[in-house]
Amino acid sequence: MSTSVELSNVTRQFGEVIAVNDVSIHIQEGEFFSMLGPSGSGKTTCLRLIAGFEQANQGRILIHGQEAAHLPPYQRDVNTVFQDYALFPHMTIEENVAYGLMVKGVPKPERKARTQEALDMVSLSSYGKRTPAQLSGGQRQRVALARALVNRPRVLLLDEPLGALDQQLREQMQTELKSLQRQLGITFIFVTHDQNEALSMSDRVAVFNRGKIEQVDTAKALYNAPKTRFVAEFVGSTNIIAEQLALRLTESARTFSIRPEHIQLDPVQMNPSTTSHPDRLSVQGTISEILYHGASTRFNVTLDTGEQLSAQHTNALADRPLNLSTRVSLSWLPSAMVQLDGAKS
Ligand code: ATP
C-alpha cells in the first residue's frame, strides 16, 4: 500500500503557542485515519497544514510523494469538508455542488454529470433544486460532502463534520460516511474530539495532546494497549493503578491502567474464594457510588487503603443486588493491567 499523506517532524507555531509540535505521521492510501484529541490539541491545525491553509514553520509534508510546501490549496489533490458546511444560502443544492467545477472552468455538460454523480453518492439526487434552508442538518452535511466529492479528490479532509448534528443523526451519518469511504476507496482524514466516533469509524487513530501525538494505532490497540496515561484516560474510561498500589499488588513500582470491565466485583461474604484465587490479584473495599447506564452499571469502590477503583458490569435481568456501602472484593487477571510509559500519578 502506498503512502497518501506524510508529515515529517512538522511544527506550526502561532507566536508563543506551538499548535503542532514535531509531528510525524504516515497515512496510507485508502485509509480512514482520524485525528483525535481535546480542544486546542492541534488537530485542526494539522488538517489545515495538509490542506494548505497553513504553512509549517518546520518539517515536510508530502502528498502522494510530492512535496506540498509550495503548493497552494487548489493544487493539492485534497478537499476539505468543514464543520459549518459553508454552503452558499442563495444557491440551489446543484449550484452549490457544481460551484467548484465552475470556478475551475469545467465545461457545463461534464459539470452537470459530475454534480449528479456526487449527489447520487450522498443519496440526495432528488434534492438538487432546493436551497440549503430547505434541507435538514444531516442533508446539509451531505451536500457539503458532495461538494468535496465532486472534485474526485484522492484525499478527503473532514474537520469535525458531524459536530453540529444531534446524537441519533450523528450515528447514522457515521455509518454512512464509513460505507461511502469503503465504497469510494479514497483516503479520509477525519478530525474529531469524540473518542467513540474515532474508534468506531477509523482504521487508525492518532491521539493528540498539546500539539504532540501520543500514539497512533488501531482503535483496538488504543483501547487495549494504551501507551500513556493520557491515551488510557482519553480513549474510554479507565482506572490508573498508581505506583504505591502497584507496588503492593505486583511488587513493581510502575503505573498501570486497567479498564473497569476487566475488574470483577463480588460481595465479600458471598464469594470468599475469589479473593484467594491464585491467578487473580485482588483488593477489598466498599461501594461508594453506583451509576446505572442501562446496558451496564458502574460501581465506584473505595479501597481499604484509600484509593478509588471502578468496576463496570454488564447488566443481566437477574442481577444480584449490590448496594451502596456493600463490602466487596475486586479482582482481576494480571494480564488486564497495562503498563504505561513515563506516567507519573
Ligand atoms: P478544537 O477541537 O477546539 O478545534 P484543535 O485540537 O483542532 O481544537 P487547533 O485549532 O489546531 O486545536 O489549535 C491548537 C492551538 O493553536 C490552540 O491553542 C489554538 O488557540 C492555537 N491556534 C490555532 N490557530 C491559531 C491562529 N490562527 N492564531 C493563533 N493561535 C492559533
UniProtKB/TrEMBL annotation:
Task: Write out the GO MF terms.
Answer: ATP binding; ATP hydrolysis activity; transmembrane transporter activity
Domain ABC transporter stretches? 5-235
Identify the Pfam families for this entry. Answer: ABC_tran, TOBE_2
Keyword list, A-Z: ATP-binding, Nucleotide-binding, Transport
Q: Which GO terms describe its biological process?
A: putrescine transport
Q: Which domain of life is it from?
A: Bacteria
Q: Name one GO cellular component term.
A: ATP-binding cassette (ABC) transporter complex
- Protein name per Swiss-Prot or TrEMBL: Spermidine/putrescine ABC transporter ATPase subunit
